[in-house]
Prior knowledge:
- It is a single chain.
- This protein is 84% helix and 0% strand.
- It has 4 helices and no strands.
- By secondary structure, it is mainly α.
- The chain has one domain: Up-down Bundle (de novo design (two linked rop proteins)).
Amino acid sequence: MKSDIPDRTFEFARRVVMLCRALDAEPGVPRILANQLIRSGTSIGANVEEAQASQSVADFVSKYSIACKEARETRYWLRLLAASAIVPEGRLTDMQQECNELIAILTSIIKKLKSRKQ
């Protein structure tokens, strides 16, 4: 069974950290891309976690919107790592799928909350 969104984003961030640790061990482009990926990939969960203490629906939507943007950026870096053969594409398939699912979930939550406000 899939866990709730804070748990899923935390687990995703953990996986990003593990991947970036491996990339950071290599000089040059892999290390540079690892720095980009670690920022966006861990920011997803950080914003979701911060949203749990939101002071309003608007604040919650704002944090989830930032998390969704960070997830989209993360998807870009994962695609680039695979397309440039820095990481074998097969190694990233599960992470890319989870990132796509997180984007879909976050987008759905944001849309539902925005529609309630209208």
